[in-house]
């Protein structure tokens, strides 16, 4: 029968009723014992409808394993656990729940009696996380599409060829890579002053001519989601985007796009740049000459090079070098518009120049109002001869820079930064012909697209880096919590083991003392009886026949010789048992949780005595020899029980390494463990017989005198990769189920954190392993 507690009488029912979270109690099997009234709102059930039913009945099948594992954890070993899962409401819909459970133990038996759960609806949070993930994926996909589209458009324009083919390729690329409904390009016929469609891709949709003419008249992008206004047909609602094709303030055409969904602002910005590049390409085709054709390859090559990099510095370096080589000019610079403490200036960040000229790279150029104003208004500055300039301030500024001719074209990035590409002649004047200006404008358009892509990529990288750092931080926190929990469990186990060992040793000690003490009396009684028998034999040599037969049958002479040996063997056995019991008591040291001066050799010997059975020969496994090279050590201030645990872990690892090595490939050398101890004196390290591989140990710890303990084996050794992780929690080279990976980690904490010491390992494959323990003789309690 299920026990249903009446929490009302304790006043808890009213408190539970006030909570917006569902508070419930369950049996250890997961059956509802109680549910707070909020279950009506969250799940649509009455509290009585849940009582007597298992929580698993309402769990989503895909989350049942997680819920069952959480229940197993809380019942078996965790005091508190949190799990997220989907739970079915009465109307059949699922909502996300986050439940934090804790166990209630029986005060006498210590068995889990009930489980208390506090659950809350996290459906909104889960939906927000899913939407955020979808938005990130969508943004990343859009970035890739825009990057590829910009590169493809640049390559198409740089390749040149017939105008109709080039524009058709552009519209097809835009439709395919942006998944648009249609794209079309019109050019302005100078003779008739009418727009003529040159290319169209996607679905054939009739557009309202007034809208196209509006883009031509305003020379501004026209964006609208009012579908009926732009379309002659009302059968297919679409989002319209129109971009003017302008070159040197002259309208030469229009590019119109239709999409089923509105385009992002970033997409519009890049499409505007593409429209400018297409406009320049159209104008170039109209006014193409032989010299322009020879330079077209530069734009194509630069586009390919810029596409290969997503770093702004590399993009700018490539741009200035390519432009200087193409135009054969004295100097090409890229400058960013900056402001320091309210004072604007231009910073030269990249430069390609004639080797005979002085470098201006990474220098600042003072702000000149007329120069800056025109560039900030996105105007190209073309000066064929600086001496003929009418503006005195600009003329003086350019002469100060050493320019005789200048062509400056501004760049605005998507992030709002303003830059400029300066092409300058310093040795003679130069007339900048329209083809050169056109080429430079096309190059600048490609550089702007490349910078925008690089900035978008950097933003994505930074966001991904922050997310990764957050995930790593959470993983580290979880790892630390797991290590702390494992340490607490291990400490509790060792404490329980210490109590158990102490109890067993006490129980064994009583009968052993009884046997040991009575053996002396038994031996004395035996010799008394034996002397009496000898007297009988001496004074009564002729005994009755029955006595003679019995004496011959029991073999009195043999008993007289063998019984002393038996008594001696029993005496040794009892001494051995007493020694083991004493070692167990010394090793466990149950009540010694404070630091005290102890003999470390005694702790090592006690540990070896407990491990004696693992050192003995078994079958084909030879005996493991233990070589002790003890120095003269004073009493060392430490936690005896904890230090014995560290000795036990390190010696156990050495025994396992030797046993496994001998089983896999028997060696000619006898397996052996060597234990060396010495005093480490920082005042004269050369006098130390045993010096650890730890530089400036005494200087870093502030202890001039310490003790060194080396535990070395002649086993197979370990690699550098394993040594690097040897003291990490949960790291183990043993098969699954044969090791927790906590032994050396706990030993490290005992030596380093508890005793302000050092624990290191040196090893070479095939040459054995040595562990070095260094601890101060006296702890610094201040």
Describe the protein's architecture and organization.
The model is unreliable at about 1-10 and about 225-235 (pLDDT under 50). The protein is built from 22 helices and 23 strands. The protein folds into five domains: about 5-120, Beta-Lactamase; about 140-290, 2-Layer Sandwich (Beta-Lactamase), CATH 3.30.450.40; about 310-435, GAF domain (Beta-Lactamase, 2-Layer Sandwich), CATH 3.30.450.40; about 470-585, no CATH class; about 600-775, Heat Shock Protein 90 (2-Layer Sandwich). With about 775 residues, it is an alpha+beta fold.
Properties at a glance:
alpha+beta, Beta-Lactamase, 5 domains, 6-stranded antiparallel beta sheet, 5-stranded antiparallel beta sheet, 23 strands, disordered N terminus
The CATH homologous superfamily of the largest domain is called: Histidine kinase-like ATPase, C-terminal domain
* Shape summary: elongated
Largest sheet: 6 strands, antiparallel
Please estimate the helix content: 40-55%
What is the CATH topology of the largest domain?
Heat Shock Protein 90
What's the alpha carbon Rg, rounded to whole Å?
45 Å
- Domains (count): 5
Give me the number of helical elements.
22
How many angstroms does the end-to-end distance come to?
A: 61 Å
Number of strands: 23
Low-confidence stretches: 1-12, 226-237
Strand order of the largest sheet: 13-12-11-16-15-14
């Amino acid at each position: 029968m299920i026990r249903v507690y009446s929490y009302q009488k304790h006043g808890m029912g009213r408190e539970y009723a006030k909570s917006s979270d569902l508070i419930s109690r369950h049996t250890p099997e997961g059956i509802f014992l109680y549910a707070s009234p909020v279950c009506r709102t969250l799940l649509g059930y009455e509290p009585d409808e849940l009582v007597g039913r298992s929580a698993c009945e309402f769990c989503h099948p895909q989350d049942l394993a997680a819920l069952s594992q959480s229940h197993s954890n809380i019942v078996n070993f965790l005091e508190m656990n949190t799990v997220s899962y989907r739970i079915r409401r009465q109307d059949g819909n699922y909502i996300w729940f986050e439940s934090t459970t804790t166990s209630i133990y029986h005060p006498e038996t210590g068995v889990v009696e009930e489980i208390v759960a506090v659950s809350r609806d996290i459906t909104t949070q889960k939906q927000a996380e899913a939407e955020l993930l979808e938005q990130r994926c969508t943004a990343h996909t859009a970035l890739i599409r825009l990057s590829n589209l910009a590169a493809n458009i640049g390559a198409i324009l740089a390749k040149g060829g017939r105008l109709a083919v080039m524009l058709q390729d552009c519209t097809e690329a835009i439709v395919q890579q942006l998944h648009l409904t249609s794209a079309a390009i019109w050019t302005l016929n100078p003779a008739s002053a009418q727009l003529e469609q040159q290319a169209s891709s996607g679905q054939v949709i009739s557009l309202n001519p007034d809208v196209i003419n509006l883009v031509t008249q305003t020379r501004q992008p026209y964006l609208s989601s009012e579908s009926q206004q732009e379309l002659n047909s009302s059968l297919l609602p679409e989002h319209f985007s129109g971009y003017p094709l302008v070159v040197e303030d002259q309208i030469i055409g229009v590019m119109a796009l239709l999409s089923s969904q509105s385009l992002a602002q970033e997409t519009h910005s890049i499409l505007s740049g593409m429209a400018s590049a297409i406009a320049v390409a159209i104008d170039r085709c109209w006014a193409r000459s032989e010299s322009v054709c020879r330079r077209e390859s530069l734009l194509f090559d630069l586009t390919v090079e810029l596409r290969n990099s997503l770093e702004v510095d590399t993009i700018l370096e490539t741009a200035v070098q390519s432009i200087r080589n193409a135009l054969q000019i004295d100097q090409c610079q890229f400058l960013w518009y900056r402001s320091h403490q309210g004072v604007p200036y231009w910073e030269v960040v990249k430069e390609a120049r004639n080797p005979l000229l002085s470098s201006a790279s990474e220098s600042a150029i003072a702000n000149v109002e007329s120069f800056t104003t025109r560039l900030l208004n996105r105007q190209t500055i073309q000066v064929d001869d600086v001496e003929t300039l009418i503006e005195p301030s600009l003329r003086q500024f350019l002469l100060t820079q050493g320019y005789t001719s200048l062509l400056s074209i501004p760049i605005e990035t998507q992030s709002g930064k303003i830059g400029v590409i300066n092409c300058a002649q310093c040795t003679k004047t130069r007339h900048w012909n329209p083809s050169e200006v056109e080429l430079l404008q096309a190059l600048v358009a490609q550089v702007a697209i490349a910078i925008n892509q690089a900035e978008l990529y950097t933003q994505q990288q930074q966001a991904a880096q922050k997310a990764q750092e957050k995930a790593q931080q959470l993983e580290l926190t979880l790892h630390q919590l797991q290590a702390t929990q494992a340490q607490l469990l291990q400490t509790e186990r060792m404490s329980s083991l210490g109590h158990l060992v102490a109890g067993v040793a006490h129980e064994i000690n009583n009968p052993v003392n009884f046997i040991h003490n009575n053996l002396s009396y038994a031996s004395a009684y035996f010799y008394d009886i034996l002397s009496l028998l000898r007297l009988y034999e001496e004074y009564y040599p002729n005994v009755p026949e029955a006595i003679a037969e019995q004496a011959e049958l029991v073999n009195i002479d043999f008993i007289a010789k063998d019984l002393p040996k038996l008594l001696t063997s029993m005496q040794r056995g009892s001494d051995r048992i007493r020694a083991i019991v004493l070692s167990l008591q010394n090793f466990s040291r149950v009540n010694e949780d404070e630091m005290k001066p102890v003999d470390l050799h005694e702790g090592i010997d006690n540990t070896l005595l407990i491990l004696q059975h693992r050192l003995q020969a078994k079958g084909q496994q030879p005996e493991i020899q233990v070589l002790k090279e003890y120095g003269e050590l004073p009493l060392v201030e430490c936690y005896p029980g904890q230090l014995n645990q560290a000795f036990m872990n390190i010696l156990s690892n050495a025994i396992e390494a030797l046993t496994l090595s001998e089983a896999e490939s028997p060696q000619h050398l006898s397996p052996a463990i060597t234990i060396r101890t010495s005093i480490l004196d920082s005042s004269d390290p050369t006098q130390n017989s045993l010096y650890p591989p730890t530089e400036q140990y005494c200087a870093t710890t502030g202890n001039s005198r310490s003790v060194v303990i080396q535990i070395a084996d002649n086993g197979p050794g370990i690699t550098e990769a394993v040594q690097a992780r040897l003291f990490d929690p949960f790291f183990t080279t043993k098969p699954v189920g044969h090791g927790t990976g906590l032994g050396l980690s706990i030993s490290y904490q005992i030596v380093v954190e508890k005793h302000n010491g050092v624990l290191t390992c040196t090893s070479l494959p095939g040459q054995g392993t040595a562990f070095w323990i260094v601890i101060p003789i006296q702890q610094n309690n201040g």
